[in-house]
């Protein structure tokens, strides 16, 4: 499979979490219906027989599928009761939602909302991730993150960009979940980062649907300084623990959107990026202060919530211009 151009998503380990493989469309429909909602799959005229492969990972907040049909197909349904986000890694999807026809290619996602009818054409070469989230779970998360927010009042766009802003955050979180969900020894599978990653995934989805903040030349208000300070105090006190966006919302007493804008105004990055950089600086300081032979990079990284060695190496080198092992070896 050719590498995806989506930030943070290198692909989906289809061979590891395979739920079904075959050409029996009725069996595929029944398997998917047992997990989420019924849908009908039909082959497009004059196309080769299907070679369908479906991989599946059950999440606390929904289901994640890797899907390829091996043929051009058309997928339809009755009105759905969940949010369905389809992310092509190669090929394309053509969807009809809310009286709009859109084409999703790598770097974008097709979004269906409750009461939509699935109406999606898959190209023969299409490989896509499909995230299914029950409506009540996303609504509950939204109310906690931004009191008073009702999702049904939001104008959900049928096409979402994954290359910038909160859409990129969504893609990054989805990429980590793809790789770690099928590894029994990963921090995600062991429950160490499950909640924060799933919350980041869905909250990024919500934020991507809201208008970008307007530029402001005004200085940060005292109230803004106060709630950002409360967030910093919480991060400092709990930095060795799993911290999710909702933890910061509860600690500060403001909405997710307000918190996001406050961090961007004060630091130029959102709270998730700030927290990641905060921990990277702590790792950097610990490695510089370590006595020779007293610890390993993995030990120090785990203390600050980094359990994936390759992800740590990339982030650390981007920030400090060298690998963590190089910092440690200079002691």
From TrEMBL:
Q: Name one GO molecular function term.
A: sequence-specific DNA binding
Key word GTP-binding present in the record? Answer: no
> Entry's Gene3D superfamilies?
Homeodomain-like
Q: Where are the transmembrane segments?
A: none
Would you say which domain of life the source belongs to? Bacteria
Report the Pfam families cross-referenced here. Answer: AraC_binding_2, HTH_18
Q: Which UniProt keywords apply?
A: DNA-binding, Transcription, Transcription regulation
PANTHER family per UniProt: HTH-TYPE TRANSCRIPTIONAL ACTIVATOR RHAS-RELATED (PTHR46796)
- This chain belongs to the protein called Uncharacterized protein
Q: Which organism is it from?
A: Denitratisoma oestradiolicum
